[in-house]
Write a structure and sequence with these properties.
The chain is 40% helix and 27% strand.
């Protein structure tokens, strides 16, 4: 089971990243959980300086932008 986390305070880009990650994981047929991390201290604990950020199984895969669906599939898969 993949653990996908979206780091961000809930801005439009954060919401878009969550939707893109969800669509990518579904397209790949993965079993996963999707968690939104909005607490600034929790976000900082990942070493992320720019949001939104995508974390897969505890590893930061992307920060500061929203990937395309195809890129998200590569990052999550």
């Amino acid at each position: 089971m993949k653990k996908i986390q979206i780091l961000g305070t809930g801005c439009k880009k954060c919401t878009t990243l969550a939707e893109t990650a969800d669509a990518a994981a579904k397209a790949l047929g993965l079993e996963y959980t999707l968690e939104k991390v909005t607490n600034l201290n929790d976000i900082a604990s990942f070493g992320v300086m720019f949001t939104p950020a995508l974390v897969v199984d505890g590893v930061v895969k992307l920060s500061g932008r929203v990937p395309s669906l195809d890129e998200a599939k590569q990052l999550i898969g």
